[in-house]
Amino acid sequence: MKGQPIGFEIEGQTKGSLISNTTLDRFGVFAFSHPTGGFDPALSKPDFFYNLSVEKSGAKWLYNPITYWPPTGSISFFAYAPHSSTTGGAITHSSQSDVGFPIITYTLPDAIPNQIDLLTSIPVYEARNQATPVEFELYHALSTINFRAHFAATMPAGWNGYITEITIGPFKNSGSYNYLNWTIAPSAQDKSYNLSTANGYLQDIQTLSTTPQTITSPNGDLLLIPQSIDANAKITIKFTLDKVGTLENKTVVHTVRNFIPTLEKSKSYTITLGITTEMNFSLKCDVVDWTTYNISLPAYD
Description:
By secondary structure, the chain is an all-beta fold.
């Protein structure tokens, strides 16, 4: 006798720029069957589902062919998004014959807008035949950096200023994640990233104030592999000060790990640049948990 069909629900969000709950339309699933016992990292293989593609269809999450719960035993599930088939080779994973936790390898595209907001689920261990969908809670597996800027004090009358370019790095561009920890890939390269008003990754804000404001464009958030920051990583800031029509340009360089020693998974780093009348910069970094919000769709009527 067949059990109930296996259905899915999902919670979370994922960049193409940052993908919202309205644009997340496909995720992947690995599933391990346990006729007896439970998940064993030394023995279990993804023999039930291997990189299954689950797609949104209206108000449902569907996959093909429909698969039913086994009458006995249990299944452990691991999900991630977006599905590797949509990432142009940026995401790869361990093989179906490998034992233990699925390993996802991600190599950042060089172009900032093509960086992917990789999501992974909290594993669902040893679920049994049930009428309700398997529910995944997805969280951000990467680190994100964005920028704000302000004047550190009130400028003289008629003075104005704006940031034209920020370069940050290098950072390692590739790593592997096993649903527990990140490991930098042996093939990882050192990459730096440039945001400017010319390439559109910085907003062309012509007037700063003493109130911090976001200067990163919507497609300019950096999505990076979690890692320890090397001493060679720098942030280079190019700034123009307008003294009642007289323009002065300055470039300032800071060491990244003086204010970000480590990029941690699921953390958002907002670097705030405080600009003085002497055209120097104070840098402050606020770190918050990268929050998620709920998506809950039925799999079947």
